[in-house]
Design goal:
By secondary structure, the chain is α/β, with parallel strands linked by helices. Helices cover 31% and strands 21% of the residues. A hairpin with a 6-residue loop joins β10 and β11.
């Protein structure tokens, strides 16, 4: 198929799922016009009831449309198109394109195999009708539905996914949290100073390489001579202070009996144990140790160091297979089946002296569970967590809006850790580049009180490692 060159002003026909996904999509098309078919308004009306995120988004869209109607005034102004206000980069309002509604029956030529009574096919027919009535305008169907975009392409209709919520163009561009130094790193520095403070060794480095670093980024040189593992403590454009890391691979630095098994795990434990780092995100495949390391650090700082009052763990309840239906019991009892990873890791961490016997093991287990609270995402609105260690598991299934709702619950003295694997997303219409986990990794990388690391090596078992690589 020959692709047409797209120049000049465009008309975007929005599918219902775009507005359900992002209510602000109405204001995201700059100077171009938007067209809403009547079938889209009907679908929005059917989706407004309920307490789900989608229902809330639909109600927000309805409020936006109502405000635009009030600004437009009479029917004649609505027919000419409603001006869509937007905000420029300098925060000064400007006028963008117009919003048009379907007000007439549009003739279209759909194949007999595509009956127009179906909502998706009706939208396709409207786009074809617009193409015929506006031959000088590029008409584009915007939809999150892959199958609808496939049908549109087959019929010669230009279609696109909704890209505005993409954090990155390619997931390979996502910040990894660590950087390997070049072999001649020390020779290219303009200035180097060192000092010791509170048992830690610091270096002040001046050079061009510093401008590419981020706060709390982990830097390392893999060679035997002049080997270094450090964290960027603070930086300006060309000057950075770096701090040598604690080596949690040694038994004398074990965290709740757990030692790091590779470089990335050592980086992760340094971030998790640092009281100046309020937000930590850990990415990695299954078996890289995300949950185990986080729980070990949380228990040490909660029970031994008394830094936090308790540990709160939550996750989005998206099933891998068929939903098993309603679960009985309290909030914590309902969440327990979703917290298998927590229970599995607590078994590893619940190590007591052999002389304690079964009674000692049970007493330790009761102590751990009394300091760990399992909470549902559904009841997070309006809460404030003070001096808590909050763990958000399976964070790749959260939207950017849900992630903002959770992180803004943090009060003074609270640390939040997000765990996830962006290659295992189960939420509809979310992808690796639009996940809330990807969103926070990218947005927090420049903040001096946050840290991120991507765990690379699986440490679960040789069987799990082989399965991850070959299945």
């Amino acid at each position: 198929m020959i692709k047409r060159a797209i120049i000049g002003k465009r008309l975007f026909v929005l599918d219902t799922n775009v507005l359900m996904h992002d209510p602000t999509a109405l204001y995201r098309f700059d100077e171009h016009d938007i067209f809403l078919p009547m079938i889209v308004l009907e679908e929005l009306d059917r989706g407004k009831k309920g307490l789900s995120e989608v229902s809330r988004n639909v109600r927000q869209v309805s409020r936006f449309l109502d405000e635009l109607m009030l600004q437009a005034g009479d029917t004649e102004a609505i027919a000419k198109g409603i001006h869509l206000p937007t905000v420029a980069n300098n925060d000064t309002p400007k006028i963008s394109g117009r919003l048009f509604f379907q007000t007439t029956q549009m003739t279209h030529d759909l194949p007999k195999e595509l009956p127009g009574q179906l909502a998706d096919n009706a939208i396709l027919g409207i786009v074809i009708g617009l193409q015929k009535s506006k031959p000088d305008t590029t008409v584009t169907l915007v939809s999150k539905d892959i199958n609808l975009r496939i049908k549109a392409t087959v019929l010669g209709v230009h279609s696109e996914d909704y890209f505005n919520d993409k954090v990155l163009d390619d997931v390979d561009l996502l910040y990894r949290g660590s950087a390997e130094l070049v072999a001649d790193f020390w020779d290219d520095l303009n200035r180097l100073e060192s000092w010791t403070k509170d048992g830690h060794t610091y270096y002040q480095i001046e050079g061009d390489i510093v401008k590419d670093w981020y706060p709390n980024q982990l830097i390392y040189s893999p060679g035997e001579s002049n080997a270094i593992e450090a964290i960027v403590h603070s930086k300006t454009d060309f000057v950075a202070n770096i701090k040598l890391l604690n080596d949690y691979r040694k038994d004398n630095h074990a965290v709740w009996g757990i030692t790091a098994r590779n470089r990335e795990q050592n980086f992760a434990l340094n971030l998790l144990m640092d009281p100046d780092v309020d937000f930590v995100s850990l990415l990695g495949q299954a078996g890289t140790g995300k949950t185990l390391l986080t729980l070990a650090a949380a228990l040490t700082q909660t029970i031994e160091n008394k830094r936090y009052l308790e540990i709160i763990m939550t996750r989005v309840t998206v099933p891998v297979g068929e939903d098993i239906g309603f679960l009985p019991g309290t909030e914590e009892e309902k969440m327990t089946p979703w917290m298998g990873a927590l229970m599995d890791n607590l078994e590893v961490l619940n190590k007591t002296d052999i002389s304690g016997g079964e009674w000692g093991k049970q007493a330790t287990n009761d102590l751990l569970q009394s300091r760990i609270k399992i909470r549902s995402l559904n009841f997070m609105r309006g809460r404030t967590f003070l001096n808590r260690f909050l763990i958000i598991d399976e964070a790749q299934n959260l939207t950017s809006k849900q992630m903002k709702t959770l992180i803004t619950r943090a009060g003074p003295g609270t640390k939040i850790v997000c765990l996830g694997n962006i290659t295992q997303i189960d939420t509809p219409y979310l992808s690796e580049t639009t996940s809330g986990l990807t969103y926070v990794v990218d947005r927090f990388k420049n903040w001096e009180h946050s840290g991120h690391i991507t765990l690379l090596r699986g440490e679960r078992s040789r069987l799990a490692d082989f399965a991850s690589e070959n299945l």
